[in-house]
Amino acid sequence: xxxxxxxxxxxxxxxxxxxxxxxxxxxxxxxxxxxxxxxxxxxxxxxxxxxxxxxxxxxxxxxxxxxxxxxxxxxxxxxxxxxxxxxxxxxxxxxxxxxxxxxxxxxxxxxxxxxxxxxxxxxxxxxxxxxxxxxxxxxxxxxxxxxxxxxxxxxxxxxxxxxxxxxxxxxxxxxxxxxxxxxxxxxxxxxxxxxxxxxxxxxxxxxxxxxxxxxxxxxxxxxxxxxxxxxxxxxxxxxxxxxxxxxxxxxxxxxxxxxxxxxxxxxxxxxxxxxxxxxxxxxxxxxxxxxxxxxxxxxxxxxxxxxxxxxxxxxxxxxxxxxxxxxxxxxxxxxxxxxxxxxxxxxxxxxxxxxxxxxxxxxxxxxxxxxxxxxxxxxxxxxxxxxxxxxxxxxxxxxxxxxxxxxxxxxxxxxxxxxxxxxxxxxxxxxxxxxxxxxxxxxxxxxxxxxxxxxxxxxxxxxxxxxxxxxxxxxxxxxxxxxxxxxxxxxxxxxxxxxxxxxxxxxxxxxxxxxxxxxxxxxxxxxxxxxxxxxxxxxxxxxxxxxxxxxxxxxxxxxxxxxxxxxxxxxxxxxxxxxxxxxxxxxxxxxxxxxxxxxxxxxxxxxxxxxxxxxxxxxxxxxxxxxxxxxxxxxxxxxxxxxxxxxxxxxxxxxxxxxxxxxxxxxxxxxxxxxxxxxxxxxxxxxxxxxxxxxxxxxxxxxxxxxxxxxxxxxxxxxxxxxxxxxxxxxxxxxxxxxxxxxxxxxxxxxxxxxxxxxxxxxxxxxxxxxxxxxxxxxxxxxxxxxxxxxxxxxxxxxxxxxxxx
Length: 806
Description:
Helix 15 packs antiparallel against helix 16 and helix 15 (303-318) packs parallel to helix 17 (346-360). Strands 6-14-9-12-11-10-13-8-7 form a 9-stranded antiparallel β-sheet. A 5-stranded mixed β-sheet has the order 2-1-3-5-4, with helices on both faces. The chain is an alpha+beta fold.
C-alpha cells in the first residue's frame, strides 16, 4: 500500500509539472504564432552563435587552463563591444568601476562586487541627478572625477572584482555544460544590445537627457516640450554618464552592465535558496530567453535596471535576519534608486518592506534608521523635487487631478489602452493573447506562465520558498492591477521563475524539471525576436550586413532626420515634428517641438489647425513658435497644412521614407491699417485695425510741419480690458527738418488683454502739421524656447544674492 501511495504521489508530482507544459505546447502548436517568419532571424542568431563558439573552442585548445565557458562569455562580450562601440564599452566599464569603488564604502567591507555596483550606481546617479540643471556636465570633468575615484578606491575595486572572478571560475568549473548552455542563451538574447537606439520611447523621450548633457552640459528640463521631461530619470542618468565620457551613445553597453548584474543576482539568489546550480542556471535561462527580456536590451526602458535592483534588494534583505547599519544603508540606497527610476516601483518596495519588518524587525538597527531613510530620500528625490519646483506636480503627468499643474490636463491620467479585463485564464492569455497586454504579437511575453503558476502553488506551500513566492506574486499583482501591461511586471518575473522552479525542486523533480525548463527555453528562443517589431523585422540582419547607418535609415528614419538637422543647423533652427511616429525630437538640443500628446497644448492647436482647410491656423502656429523647419508624414498631411506649405515652399528641403522636411521662411510683418479718430493742429489720433493676441506693433510716420527743429511727440497707447483707460506704451520724436518734413518710428509689444491700440501725434510747440503717411506693421510674437533649468538657476542665484546683500 505504501508503494502504491508513493507511485500515486509520483504521478501527481509529475502531472503538476508536465500538464501545464503540455497545455503550453498545445497552445504553441495550435495558435498561429507565425513561427516560420522567425526562421531567418533564428538562422542569423544560430550562425553568430556557431561562429563565436568555434572561435572560443580554438582559443580553449590554445589555453586549456581557462574554462571554455569563460572564453565563450568573453567572445560574446567582445562581439557586443564591437557593435555597441568600443568607446561606449570602455566608458561603461569606467562607470561600473567607479560605482563599485563608491558602493564598497557602504557594503560592510565584504568586497561584494554586485552589491557595491548597485549601491554605487545609486550614489552616482543621484549625485548627477541633483546637478542636472547646472552646466557642469563636461567630458573632461567626468573623466577626471572617474579616474580619481578609481585611483582612490583601487584596492576595494580590485578585491571585489577578484572575488567575482573566483566565483565565476568556480561556477564554470562546477557545471561546465550548464555554463556553456546558459552563456550561449545569454549571448543570443543579448544581441539587441548591438543595435543602435531605435525604439519609440527612446527617440521621443529617453535620449533627451544623455544628449543634452553631452552637448549642452546640463539638462533643460523642458516640460513644455515633453510632458515626460521631469519623469523619474535615474536610469537615463546612468546612460548619460557613460555617454558623456564616451562622447557617443552608450545604451547597448549600459544595458549589458544591467543584464550582467541581473543574472549574477539571480545566480546568487538561487544559491541563497540552496537551489542546485543546474536549476539556478535553468531559471536564468528561462528569464533571459523571454522575448520581452531580450527586447529590453534594444531600448532604454526601466524594467531591466528595476529587475536587477529588485533582485539585489532580495539578496540584501534575505542574506541574514540580522541587518547591520551598513546593510540597512545599502538597502535604503537601492530602494531610493528604484523610486528614482520609476514611480510605480514603489509597488515593488511594499512587499519587500513588509518582509524585512517581519524577518528582521526585532533586530533592525533602529538608531541607524533615520540616517538610512535620509539616504534613501536623497537618492530617490531629484526628479520629484525638481518636478515640484518647476511644475507644481512632483509626479507629472500622473496625479494632476490632485496637484493641478498647468502643464497637463487636470485629471489623474492613466493610459486606457492597457486596461483589458483579466480573469483566471490570465497565464494562458499572456502567452497567446499577448497583444492585449503588450505592443507585440502572441508569444512575445514568453511561454512560462502556466508552468510558473503551477510551481508557485507548490512554492507557497513550501516554507523555504514561500517568502520569494509571496513577494514575487505580490509585486506582479500590485503592478499589473494598476496597468495591464505585462512589460511592467518584468522585475517580478525574475522572482516568480526562481520561486516556481524552487517549488518543483522541493518535490524532488530534479531531472524532469531540467527537461521541462529546457523545453520552455526552446519555445522562448524560437520566438525570441518578436519582442519588438524592429528586431522581428530583421534589424540585426541589417546591422550585420549593412552597418548601423543603414539600419537607422530603414528602421528609425526619424533619427537620420535628426542627424541631418544637426548637420544643417545654422544656430537659429526651430523644428516641429507633426504626425511623425515616435516624434524623433528627443536627441535634438536645438528647439524641437512635437504635436503629439507629449506636448498637449500644441497637440490641441495642431488638431484645430488640421481642421481648417484654409491653412491660416497653421500659418499662425508656425509663426507663433518661430518654426523654421517642419517635419511631417506626407501621408498624414491635412489639406490645411498643405495649403500653408504651398504658400511658403514648392518642395521639401529633404525627405526620408514617408517623412518630408519643409523649410518655413520667416513670417513677414503684416501691414496694419489705421482709422483716423481726430486730426488737427493740436494733435492727431488714429486707431489700429485688428490688433490682438501676442506680438508687436511698429509705426513709421511722416508729417508735413512748419517749425524746423521742433519735435512732434509720437506715441502708441493701448486700452486694456478691465481698466477703461488708455495706457501709454512708448513715445518717440519726429523732428521737423528744414524742408518741413518730420519722420519718426515707434515700436512696442502688445500687452496681454489689449482691446484696442492707438497711434497719437502731438506737437511739443504749437505748429501747423499734418500726417503724410503712416506705415504700420504687426509682427506675431514667437514663443521663446522653454528652458526651465536656466530659469531655475536664475531663481537660485537671485535667492543667493538676496541672502548676501546687507
